[in-house]
Amino acid sequence: MPSDPPTPTRPQRPTPTRTQTTTAARSALTPAQAIAQAWMRESSEAQQKWRVADALAKEKYVNPIRWSTAGRSPERKAKGKL
After folding, report:
1. Please, which residues have CB within 8 angstroms of residue 39's CB and are 6 or more apart in sequence?
2. Residue extents of the structural domains in the chain
3. Which whole number is the average pLDDT over 28-33?
4. What is the DSSP letter of 13?
5. Between residues 9 and 53, which one has the greater pLDDT?
6. 69 Cβ partners below 8 Å, 6+ apart?
7. Where do Pro residues bias regions lie (predicted)?
8. Is the model's pTM score more than 0.70?
9. In this structure, are residues 68 and 60 in contact, taking their beta carbons and an 8 Å threshold?
10. CA 71/CA 5 separation, integer angstroms
11. Which residue has the higher pLDDT, 18 or 41?
């Protein structure tokens, strides 16, 4: 009787090479790098507008409008009560 050839336990898969994974990792940008590149593409006028908008937002955050009833007249205070 002839003997049967051994069967492989599992099929062989091609293994990825290191160059494929490292080049893909190098091309990916972090969020900070993407923002920095986008900022460099902005015109100087657009950058100035962003700086003004950022300063206004900071001012509103640091010094918000305070709503108070301290300055209301007695008539308006009485009118507001039920």
Report:
1. 47
2. 41-65
3. 94
4. -
5. 53
6. 77
7. 1-14
8. no
9. no
10. 98
11. 41
